[in-house]
Amino acid sequence: MKKNPFAINFGRVPLQYISRDILIDEIIDELSGEYVQNPCFMLSGTRGSGKTVTMTSIERKLAESEEWIIIRLNPERNMLEGLVAKLYDSKDFLTKFIDTGVNLSKFGIGVNITSKSPVADIESALEIILKEIKKKKKRLLVTVDEVSNTAYMREFASSFQIMIREELPIYLIMAGLYENIRSLENEKNLTFLYRALKYEMEPLNMTLIADRYSKTMGIKQDTAMEYALITKGYPFAYQALGKYLWEDDTHMINNEILAKFDEALRHYVYEKIWSELSPKDRWYMSFIVQKKEMHVAEILELAKEKKNEFSQYRARLRDKGLINTNTHWMVSFRLPRFDVFVKNEMNN
């Protein structure tokens, strides 16, 4: 039996991954220029929208060049110390340089064969290493997934700003939920992040999804488009529906496949999203999902609320990637079969 080309595990690039080529090429072109005007990039979107996979694709493409050193960091740990430690292990020339030229014994890094006094400050040590990277005509890309407003992240961002001012070859890509990125850039000392290039993970192209379903499972194009529309272009839904269609001998949607699809969305994504909403967010969502598209006036009538009251929640739900507000005064839910999930939650 052939391996299922669709996967619902997060982070790994599935066999039937639909790449966001335009976004990826734009970032790579920017980073590959002789003079990089934008050293910081942000990818935002809901869970399952493809942030991590997109960032991984960028890492892999840049890694094809010897010019780049690529380091992934965890925002829940000491990022400056983690970066220096990983740099020590990343390239032979850096390992030798640190062992002979920078005493990092205070931080448990290196074999301490240098006669120099230990470096007391990890930021100073990083600057010394970056100057060596620059001397070797290399560039450092730091990537941070699931970015959040932690003390380590704030410390790293402040240091990053200083190193950019000193024209050191360090670049940063962060991926995270919109509200977490907004929280970070609202820090009074980190407003430079407002100038970072930001990319929201928009829905995948429906025609591409239909084409992949059709070619992978041998189903008619019009049928494949019907299935693509069910996913609403949501990357996790594209993978989940594809996985269960592939496992069915007929490759046709039935109640069992829809039940598995709904359960995957609930278990892997929607429960977490729902748990992070305020009671009033949930209250408004319970009305919004009653129709495919609803006028604001109708929502206010159902909820017995005033326009000013709803405006802030409308903005919050939009920023969380849960609703579309592109059409004036009209609102619709954005995630596939989220109406089914919400109605089940409200009835429990």
Describe the protein.
The chain has about 350 residues and is of the alpha/beta class. It has three domains: about 20-200, 3-Layer(aba) Sandwich (Rossmann fold); about 205-275, no CATH class; about 280-345, Arc Repressor Mutant, subunit A (Orthogonal Bundle). Helix content is about 50%, strand content about 10%. It has a five-stranded parallel β-sheet with strand order 2-3-4-1-5, sandwiched between helices. β3 (about 140-145), α6 and β4 form a beta-alpha-beta unit. It is globular.
Write the topology of this structure.
Blueprint lengths: L20 H12 L7 E5 L6 H13 L4 E6 L5 H12 L1 H10 L20 H14 L3 E6 L6 H15 L4 E7 L1 H8 L11 E4 L5 H12 L3 H11 L3 H13 L7 H21 L3 H10 L5 E2 H8 L3 H13 L3 E2 L5 E4 L4 H10 L1
Parallel strand pairs: 1-4, 1-5, 2-3, 3-4
Antiparallel strand pairs: 6-8, 7-8
Helix pairs in contact: 1-2, 3-4, 3-5, 8-9, 8-10, 9-10, 10-11, 12-14, 12-15
Quick recap of the structure?
This protein is an alpha/beta fold. Helices cover 52% and strands 10% of the residues. It contains 15 helices and eight strands.
